[in-house]
């Protein structure tokens, strides 16, 4: 009967209950939409940046990340390759051999990063073949090179011209070679656009005297959010023979940006929930004042204060949780719609986004956490606010309450 | 043997005093009251406004703490009980009827009566039996599922009486129970209470200004300035039923 009594009490003042619930419904709906778009955009940003070059996880020779020299490369190992590929969350494993060289044309030179790649598998991680703006992508046994558009422009070179690379190879050997430019790649990032060159792996290994050696294995995962888990599990399996790093370590600046964005979101949500709290607290306050007399009667006829408090807390929690559930239910089709049909940015903003290398699309996330966390937050607010009626009821003096 | 240990004694007070702190002018609402009420009495406390009737009822009912003196209900000195013990004591020993009926507005007549028994953790079968018995006694079997707002003032007060009796208390305290009722409804309510008193020997103690209640009481205690000014026991034949 106590549950029945609490339920009926909720609907004693229908208008007030509906207004309170409505405020919770709209706040939860807004919070879910905001969280969904924020997480969706951040996830996409993270995915874009990670699959741009670094990949979600990399495996190196121990100490390579601190001292990125060819001398810290590792010998090609089929077992390592197979082990990484066997992980259920790994989509693809691609090898890299990277170092800095001088790229020269007839009249110009510029420092650049040359990356030895497997032309067949590299697109699985970075979609490099999609970034060709002139010429063609590399073939498997190709002797040519791909240059970033900015670098080619600086060197005043074009497709089918020859570029000379000068540098230091494995164990200090001199590395010199000339390569025909097969194609030009455009990177959205101006920094990358002016200093990248790609060679087929066998050419790069020849150039640097690093036969069968790689500086990194780059892993593409089923989802970038699994990077930490995959890193931990591979590190455990490899027992310290290699260093395994996820994108958060490889790209600390990106991680900081994402964390900053999330913190900003939390502050915004806190303000939103503070507003809801005032709404719920207003209802509690009114209810306590209105029912002071009734509480006095209930205690007078023998209802224990703790039982009475439990009933009143249940009423408050029910109002808040019902509001949160309705808000969550209403948000599902809205988020579902935008998940399927993300918001496309048009006009100048689209151009600006593209210039920065970002897709001009606002994606929505449908991660379950976004939905249930709102109910948990509202429930927590209701429970915290229930401290007030609890204190009031525990201090009730029936005679004084009934005198009011 | 002390008077309060007497088998038939339901309420016994000694030197009962309640002083409200009014700053420079403390108010002596109940002043050194010695009272002895036996089982089956139908007693009224009368007196002008501010004479201490309600305060005395509150002290007897364990709703307020005396400044001085003691209150025994049967053989329990309730002035020594803690607040939570007092709540339990009231639940099992005292029935209350208030001037403003004070039924729980969201519960039906049946649920209002059943509520106290639920607090007492009585079985469902026992609750059901007692509710129907009480509804029959107050003549409201046909209003069982009506909420207070659907009942007249008199009907609400009768349900309040049934609620007060539901816990099978030692006695019922009724604070101005007829104050908000018209004469016909007040008479019906009093008939019900007198009948319960006569047939089931339930002890009733009223505070009232209402002459109709005083006329039906067997004992009239008059309070003046918090003290008992007179204590009059009437003849049995003065009580008229129906």
From TrEMBL, chain B:
Query: One Pfam family, short name please?
Result: ABC_tran
InterPro entries recorded: AAA+_ATPase, ABC_transporter-like_ATP-bd, ABC_transporter-like_CS, ABC_transpr_LolD-like, MacB-like_ATP-bd, P-loop_NTPase
Q: Signal peptide location in the record?
A: none
GO molecular function terms noted in the UniProt entry: ATP binding
Query: Would you say which domain of life the source belongs to?
Result: Bacteria
Domain ABC transporter, chain residue ranges per copy:
11-241
Question: Under which name does UniProt file this protein?
Answer: ABC transporter ATP-binding protein
- Organism source for this protein? Splendidivirga corallicola
């Amino acid at each position: 009967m106590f549950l029945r009594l609490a339920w009926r009490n909720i609907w004693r003042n229908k208008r007030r209950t509906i207004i309170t619930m409505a405020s919770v419904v709209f706040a939860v709906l807004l919070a879910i939409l905001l969280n969904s778009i924020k997480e969706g955009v951040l996830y996409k940003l993270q995915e874009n940046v990670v699959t741009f070059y670094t990949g979600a996880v990399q495996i190196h020779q121990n100490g390579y990340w601190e001292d990125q020299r060819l001398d810290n490369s590792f010998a090609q190992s089929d077992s390592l390759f197979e082990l990484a590929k066997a992980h259920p969350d790994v989509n693809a494993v691609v090898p890299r051999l990277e170092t800095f060289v001088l790229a020269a044309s007839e009249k110009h030179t510029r420092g650049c990063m040359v990356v030895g790649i497997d032309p067949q598998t590299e697109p699985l991680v970075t979609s490099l073949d999609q970034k060709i703006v002139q010429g063609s992508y590399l073939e498997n046994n190709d002797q040519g090179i791909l240059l970033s558009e900015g670098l080619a422009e600086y060197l005043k070179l074009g497709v089918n011209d020859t570029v000379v690379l000068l540098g230091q190879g494995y164990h200090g050997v001199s590395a010199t070679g000339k390569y025909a430019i097969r194609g030009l790649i455009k990177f959205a990032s101006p920094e990358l656009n002016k200093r990248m060159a790609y060679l087929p792996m066998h050419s790069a290994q020849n150039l640097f005297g690093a036969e069968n050696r790689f500086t990194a294995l780059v892993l593409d995962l089923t989802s970038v959010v699994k990077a930490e888990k995959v890193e931990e599990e591979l590190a455990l399996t490899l027992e310290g023979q290699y260093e395994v790093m996820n994108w958060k370590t490889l790209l600390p600046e990106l991680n900081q940006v994402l964390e900053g964005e999330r913190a900003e979101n939390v502050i915004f949500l806190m303000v939103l929930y503070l507003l809801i709290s005032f709404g719920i607290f207003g209802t509690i306050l009114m209810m306590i004042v209105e029912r002071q007399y009734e509480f006095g009667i209930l205690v007078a006829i023998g209802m224990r204060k703790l039982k009475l408090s439990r009933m009143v807390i249940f009423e408050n929690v029910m109002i808040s949780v019902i509001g949160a559930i309705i808000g969550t239910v209403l948000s599902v089709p809205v988020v579902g719609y935008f998940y399927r049909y993300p918001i496309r940015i048009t006009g100048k903003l689209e151009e600006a986004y593209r210039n920065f290398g970002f897709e001009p699309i606002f994606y929505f996330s449908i991660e379950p956490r976004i939905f249930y966390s709102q109910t948990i937050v509202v429930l927590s607010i209701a429970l915290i606010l229930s401290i007030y009626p609890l204190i009031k009821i525990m201090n009730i003096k029936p005679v004084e309450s009934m005198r009011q | 043997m002390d008077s309060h240990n007497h088998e038939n004694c339901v309420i016994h007070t000694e030197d009962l005093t309640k002083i409200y702190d009014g700053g420079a002018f403390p108010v002596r609402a109940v002043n050194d009251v010695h009272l002895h009420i036996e089982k089956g009495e139908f007693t009224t406390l009368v007196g002008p406004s501010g004479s201490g009737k309600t305060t005395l009822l509150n002290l007897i009912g364990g709703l307020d703490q005396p400044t001085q003196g003691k209150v025994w209900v049967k053989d329990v000195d309730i002035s020594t009980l803690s607040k939570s013990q007092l709540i339990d004591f009231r639940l099992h020993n005292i029935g209350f009827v208030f001037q403003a009926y004070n039924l729980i507005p969201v519960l039906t007549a049946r649920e209002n009566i059943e509520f106290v028994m639920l607090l007492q953790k009585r079985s469902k079968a026992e609750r059901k039996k007692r509710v129907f018995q009480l509804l029959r006694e107050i003549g409201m079997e046909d209003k069982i599922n009506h909420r207070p707002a659907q009942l007249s003032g008199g009907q609400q007060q009768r349900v309040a009486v049934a609620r007060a009796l539901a816990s099978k208390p030692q006695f019922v305290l009724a604070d101005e129970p007829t104050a908000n009722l018209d004469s016909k409804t007040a008479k019906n309510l009093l008939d019900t209470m007198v009948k319960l008193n006569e047939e089931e020997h339930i002890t009733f103690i009223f505070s009232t200004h209402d002459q109709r209640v005083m006329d039906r009481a067997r004992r009239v205690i008059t309070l003046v300035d918090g003290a008992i000014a007179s204590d009059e026991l009437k003849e049995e034949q003065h009580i008229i039923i129906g």
